[in-house]
Amino acid sequence: MDRKKAIILISSIALVIAAVLMFLSKGPNNTSAISQNTEMKLISVDKLVESPGKYAGLVSVEGTVKEVINNKNMFTLGCKDACIGLPVAYKGELPKSESNIVALGEVRKDVNGKFFFDAKEIKYK
After folding, report:
1. Given this structure, which CATH class describes domain 33-124?
2. Exposed site from 3, 15, 49, 72, fewest CB < 10 Å?
3. Which percentage of the chain shows pLDDT scores above 90?
């Protein structure tokens, strides 16, 4: 290999390494639900129950846990002074009854066409 080809090869390798380092220095793009949570508007459980079809995609809903159904991994989210309840499915550790929480997830329909909230994350207030 002559000197000119060696210089071209080394320069190409250096450019590739520089591009990789620039890409890695920006850090990974975090598109998880948790990172989006800080940019989402918080919705009260009353508003969500009034018109559940209005909320598509990930939303954050706040309310008070009214009933916990351990054997179904579900609980009912309501507010302190109203009898409106939103069924919530959650695969993690279920919250304690009467605790105030914020749940991040999506509005879905069950097999009977009834709305429920599919929570991905729960935070105590």
Report:
1. mainly beta
2. 3
3. 44
The predicted-structure confidence for 57-99, as pLDDT tens digits, reads as follows: 899 999 999 999 988 899 999 987 666 789 999 999 999 999 9
Rounded to whole angstroms, the Cα distance separating 52 from 44 reads 12
Query: What mean pLDDT is predicted for residues 30-40?
Result: 45
Which candidate, 83, 73, 54, 63, places its Cα nearest to that of 120? 73
| Single pTM value for the model | 0.66
CA 24 to chain centre: 25
Query: Residue 47 belongs to what H/E stretch?
Result: helix 45-50
Q: Where in the chain are the domains?
A: 1-29, 33-124
Q: Strands, DSSP E only, in 1-125? A: 42-44, 59-69, 74-78, 86-90, 100-109, 115-124
Distance CA 102, CA 105 (A): 10
